[in-house]
Specification:
By secondary structure, the chain is mainly α. It has 13 helices and four strands. A four-stranded antiparallel β-sheet has the order 2-1-4-3.
């Protein structure tokens, strides 16, 4: 008779075996999980399988504007590789709750319950968190990256310019912005061109989609680290000053939702 642990493992494999080429592939992933987290891993598998219908409903509610009908959405979901289905459902469901149908509410007497520039700032942070999560790449912080390099090629760090150079190398290889740029580069050329035209510095459109991704990511970081509201995200044309340059922005939250939805579907293999 199988032990309780073996039975738990068998139930988990039975629930997801269609998502693996064979039992050996499943066992290899299970073996890589630290012993202290194996039960949690199996429990998460069973929970995800049990919650799949609910997650699927939330995903469709969040993305239905991108499909002709429910049948087209379900056909797309079937086409998503089995190994990626859980991630797709999680990201799409979280997107619905955190951004699409979620708002930051102010519980203060006399205040408007939902203030656009407040909720937009929080939603911008959530959008970039979701974008980063899609890639699935493990985050490595700057200190860990430095320590992983050849010591002779890295240390000593003699001055601020040396540190800045290393930080630029880190961002190019492992920084969060790299994953975000890759996501934006997956958008259609038409969408990329529209985004570039929607942000002008000294009346010149941003030249590349990479510069757009960096501009928006900096808005997100300014709110996270300096509590500067993302006022540039608005239904109206906004004017601001950055490094003595005039910035004109016409990017609404709705524009960002469209960008995210199209980018997410492209990431998981949808062809417009």
């Amino acid at each position: 008779m199988a032990s309780g642990k073996d039975s738990y493992l068998e139930h988990a494999y039975a629930a997801v075996k269609a998502r693996f080429p064979n039992r050996r592939a499943f066992n290899a992933i299970y073996a890589a999980v630290p012993d202290a987290k194996k039960n949690e891993f199996l429990g998460q598998i069973l929970q995800d399988v049990a919650n799949e219908p609910s997650y699927l409903e939330h995903a469709y509610a969040a993305l239905k504007a991108r499909f002709a009908d429910r049948h087209a959405f379900e056909a797309f979901y079937v086409s998503v590789p089995d190994a990626k289905k859980d991630k797709f459902l999680r990201v799409a469901s979280f997107y619905r709750f955190l951004v699409k149908d979620g708002d930051w509410h102010v519980q203060i007497d006399g205040s408007t319950k939902v203030i656009d520039y407040l909720t937009n700032s929080f939603k911008l942070v959530a959008l970039f968190s979701l974008i980063e999560s899609v890639s699935g790449e493990r985050h490595i912080d700057f200190h860990s990256w430095l320590c992983s390099r050849c010591a002779a090629a890295t240390f000593p760090i003699v001055d601020d310019s040396d540190l800045s150079r290393l930080h630029d190398e880190y961002k190019a290889s492992f920084g969060s912005i790299r994953r975000c740029v890759a996501f934006f580069k997956g958008l259609s050329i038409k969408r990329q061109d529209a985004l570039c035209a929607s942000i002008r510095i000294d009346d010149t459109p941003l030249p590349t989609i990479e510069s757009v991704a960096r501009f928006l990511y900096e808005l997100r970081s300014s709110f996270v680290h300096d509590v500067r509201l993302a006022l540039d995200i608005s239904d109206r044309l906004t004017l601001s000053k950055r490094k003595n340059k005039t910035v004109k922005t016409k990017v609404s939250l709705g524009d960002l939702l469209t960008v995210f939805e199209e980018g997410l579907l492209t990431w998981f293999g949808h062809e417009a």
